[in-house]
């Protein structure tokens, strides 16, 4: 899986089950990068867990950033929590840092889950 540069020098990256150690959701995946002593990461875990439980076909995968440094570097993750919204093929369609609000997560999923 390579990094492709798109317009505006944005990275068009694909993430697969082999990267995550988990299956992708059939409609979307909420990929969360966390760290051990990150208080906002716990709140993010709760929000993403609730949303993935509400929306059929959406998976929530949480990865410890320190344990996945190659992926962190490849995806340019610079702080935790960082949340990536992946489409069913594993393409990154949205990226956010900091603890998200539930309505914002639902709105981001609306762009992928139709």
Structure described in brief:
The chain has helices spanning 17-20, 39-54, 69-74, 102-110; strands at residues 4-5, 11-12, 28-34, 58-64, 82-86, 92-97.
Please, could you describe this protein's structure?
There is one protein chain. The protein is of the alpha+beta class and 114 residues long. It is 31% helix and 25% strand. The strands form 2 sheets. A 4-stranded mixed β-sheet has the order 4-3-5-6, with helices on one face. Strands 1-2 form a two-stranded antiparallel ribbon. A hairpin with a 5-residue loop joins strand 5 (82-86) and strand 6. The longest helix has 16 residues, at 39-54. It is globular, with a radius of gyration of 13 Å.
SSE class: alpha+beta
Number of strands: 6
Describe the largest sheet. Answer: 4 strands, mixed
Q: Which strand order do you get reading across the main beta sheet? A: 4-3-5-6
Number of helices: 4
Bin the helical content: 25-40%
List SSEs in N-to-C order: EEHEHEHEEH
Strand content: 25-35%
Radius of gyration, CA atoms, in whole angstroms: 13 Å
Report the average pLDDT across residues: 89
Beginning-to-end CA distance, first to last residue = 26 Å
Low-confidence stretches: 1-11
> What's the multimeric state?
single chain
Envelope shape = globular
Defining key terms:
single chain; four-stranded mixed β-sheet
């Amino acid at each position: 899986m390579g990094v492709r540069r798109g317009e505006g020098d944005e990275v068009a990256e694909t993430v697969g089950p082999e990267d995550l150690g988990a299956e992708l959701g059939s409609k979307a995946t909420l990929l969360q990068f966390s760290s051990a002593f990150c208080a906002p990461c716990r709140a993010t875990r709760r929000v993403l867990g609730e949303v993935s439980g509400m929306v059929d076909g959406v998976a929530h995968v949480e990865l410890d950033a320190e344990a996945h440094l190659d992926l962190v570097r490849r995806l340019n993750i610079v702080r935790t929590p960082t949340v990536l919204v992946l489409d069913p093929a594993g393409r990154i369609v949205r990226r956010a840092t900091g603890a998200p609000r539930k309505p914002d997560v639902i709105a981001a999923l609306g762009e992928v889950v139709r």
